[in-house]
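hey so u asked for the seq, here:
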Amino acid sequence: MAKVYVFLADGLEEVEAMTPVDVLRRAGNEVITVSVMGRKWIRGSHKIYLEADRLIQEVKCEDGDLYVLPGGGEGTKNLAENHELAQILNSAYISGSHIAAICAAPSIFGKMGFLESRKATVYPGMEDTLTGAEYQDVPVVTDDNVTTGHGPGAAFDFAFELVRILNGEDSARELKKQMVFQHETVV
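ran it, structure tokens below
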């Protein structure tokens, strides 16, 4: 069982935060949601309130296998402004732990230099924030220990990719089957 930290901030995209938490927990991982706002209650971008498990000041995050940033314009801004989170991400990246961000949040990795000479994706229109990266117009990209996701519609693809990384291809495939995950949409 892997240990995962998902960082939450006001203005996050709810589906990008909760889908990975749900799917990773179903796969048997220990997932801890961490608020960077100085309080446990987080206001999502669509006025959905989420309660984090811990405050960033309460956790030592050196033991994580995966560190996840959900997107959302305001949420990404709030995450980017948190110095404790920047230190955690930098330590995780340097140690080779896996880091992941979706929607606008890969821009944080771009600013921190984590995407240099890597393939990555980000919310459409934000491609220039992926400093040093080769932009990929696909739902999810994993390049070594960095995973990036495109946007809200890629939340399940993103979450299943994280399961694949932590728990293996068979686990991801079985979980997709159990959750009746299908790509085709009938209109």
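The longest helix spans residues 14-26. The mean pLDDT is 96.
lmk if thats what u needed
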